[in-house]
Amino acid sequence: MKEFTCIICPRGCQLIIDKNNNVTGNACPRGKEYAINEITNPTRTITTSIRVSNRIDTLVSVKTNLAIPKNLVFEAMEIINKLSIGAPTKIGQIVLKNILDTGADIIITKNID
Amino acid sequence: MKTVDLVIIGGGSAGMAAALQAKKEGISDILILEKDECLGGILNQCIHNGFGLTEFKEELTGPEYLWRFVDQIHEEKIPYICNAQVIDLSKDKIIKYSKYGLVETIKAKAIVMATGCYERSAGAIQLPGDRCTGVITAGLAQKYLNIKGYMVGKRVVILGSGDIGLIMARRLTLEGAKVICVSEIMPYSAGLNRNIQQCLKDYDIPLYLSRTVSKVVGKNRLEKVTLSSVDENMNFIPGTEMEIECDTLVLSVGLVPYISLLNYIGCPIGPTKGAIVNNYMETKIDGVFACGNCLHVHDVVDFVTEEGRNAGHGAALYIKNLIKNDGEISVIPGREISYVVPQFIDKKTNENVTLKLRVRKPLKDQFVVVKSGDRIISKTYKLGVVPSEMILLNLSIDKINEINEELTVELEGK
Ligand SMILES: Cc1cc2nc3c(=O)[nH]c(=O)nc-3n(C[C@H](O)[C@H](O)[C@H](O)COP(=O)(O)OP(=O)(O)OC[C@H]3O[C@@H](n4cnc5c(N)ncnc54)[C@H](O)[C@@H]3O)c2cc1C
Ligand code: SF4
């Protein structure tokens, strides 16, 4: 049995999952899916920012467009921190494809003129 | 003097929503004044995700959320001026703003205040000990890190467990800082459970409750802090001191509505530390409306957007002379309720009203009861209530029409 908080929405249900993967405490079906993922293959979305190469003291925010395995988060951060991009930037623009073979791309989340 | 039908002060989520709603209701002479270099407000620096679940049914980052509104402002061709800080306001709605040091004056028919909030600082909480560098508020640290790209420190203690503090704990950790702990003076966290999980537990960052900074030590730069436990009366308990070497103390100790402009015009302020308003978000100053964090501090931006629309709607009605002001019903926070917005409901309203409220402390198994005299207007069961989560209650128009006496909102144990 394991207990943790669902992070899918702000409600933050307290989930309990037993050894037969029975989930309780979830107020909606997404909680069940989350709990099962959390014990089999926990994943997280990274949100961070990278340098804008042609602007002084400016960063642009980015994210992984899919959640990646939790144990790769720091490794991914090392790669992302070396990235930079020239302005203008557009939301959804891909900066790096398939980071660490996770299938997730690093995409821009802010428009800069 | 230039005149404008509707001036919106502050171009964050609240201000943009107000402008878009007023435009939708036929007001075309609108101007948004924003002191920063771009629209969007605080969301520009909130690069984490968790925004938009109510509004767009998807999870967006702060900048993605705000750009959906900036795009609409552009589509609707609503005029705005950036780098324009409003510096003076009068009761007859004459506005002075400064842009690059030049002061302009305009007169408005209606004003929506959407100026957001500011962070409580070391001085505001009388942080004991040395005044040294390395003590910084969470929002400012967030701006440095996410927008400017400056790392604020290497070994960090965070004081206050509200969502901003928790988000910063994760952010600093991801950028390579060691976040030693988060210390919270109250016996419970002020942040969402999900943020305790994904920002602290994920990275094994301890959260100490009923514990706060009893001493700050540092000649020039911060060298260490002492944390002490507190009793129910918030007094330090001797013998519980814990010394921690660190170079940075991040303060996440509360947000306060930014209302200095409202003070200039003598606008009455309520328990939210923002203006008191009716169900159109109109303050006690005729034709001046307020919404978003300058009215009461919100934790979810989707509700800010909704409130902004409400203020834009009110301002449109006002400009079209459709608000009657034939008396109002007061809404009073009762047992265990710290505040309710709005504080008044127009008796003649023909619209449903949403009451927004917060409780004083975490409690389980409660009914939220709305009463008019002895009559129960509504009774809603809640498994658990916490101060950090705003409660929304809908009052339908037929219920409002039945009410004569003031309304009280209170908690009742099961
Ligand atoms: C750090 C932080 C993290 C958050 N995290 C989340 C989250 O994860 N999920 C969520 O849903 N919500 C979150 N919120 C809450 C939500 O994002 C905010 O409550 C909301 O964005 C506030 O909108 P606003 O328009 O009221 O204020 P703001 O966005 O602060 O806008 C106010 C604007 O007014 C301008 N202004 C102020 N004074 C003047 C003046 N005199 N003249 C001209 N302009 C002026 C300011 O420059 C600013 O642009 C967070 C808030 C903060 C602070
Ligand atoms: S179980 Fe459903 S309602 Fe509960 S936190 Fe998870 S997603 Fe939200």
Please provide a written account of the structure:
The complex is a heterodimer of chains A (113) and B (414). Chain A has a five-stranded mixed beta sheet, with no helix packed on it. Chain A has a three-stranded antiparallel beta sheet with strand order 1-2-3. Chain A has 113 residues and is α+β, with helices and mostly antiparallel strands. Chain A contains two helices and ten strands. In chain A, 18% of the residues lie in helices and 30% in strands. Chain B folds into three domains: 1-119 and 255-323, FAD/NAD(P)-binding domain (3-Layer(bba) Sandwich), CATH 3.50.50; 121-253, FAD/NAD(P)-binding domain (3-Layer(bba) Sandwich); 327-414, Sandwich (Immunoglobulin-like), CATH 2.60.40. In chain B, helix 5 (193-200) links the parallel strand 12 and strand 13 (207-208). Chain A binds chain B through residues 4-12, 14, 44-49, 51, 57-59, 61, 63, 70, 73-74, 77, 81, 91, 109-111, and chain B through 44, 47-50, 53, 61, 63-64, 67, 70, 146-149, 171, 174-175, 192-194, 196-198, 201-202, 300.
Beginning-to-end CA distance, first to last residue of chain B: 60 Å
Residue-averaged pLDDT of chain A: 93
Quantity of strands of chain B, as a count = 27
How is the quaternary structure best described? heterodimer
The fourth-level CATH homologous superfamily of the largest domain in chain B is: FAD/NAD(P)-binding domain
Name the CATH architecture of the largest domain in chain B.
3-Layer(bba) Sandwich
CATH topology descriptor of the largest domain in chain B: FAD/NAD(P)-binding domain
Average pLDDT of chain B: 95
Instruction: Measure the end-to-end span of chain A.
Output: 51 Å
The neighbouring-strand order within the major sheet of chain A is 8-5-6-10-9
Q: Give the total of beta strands of chain A.
A: 10
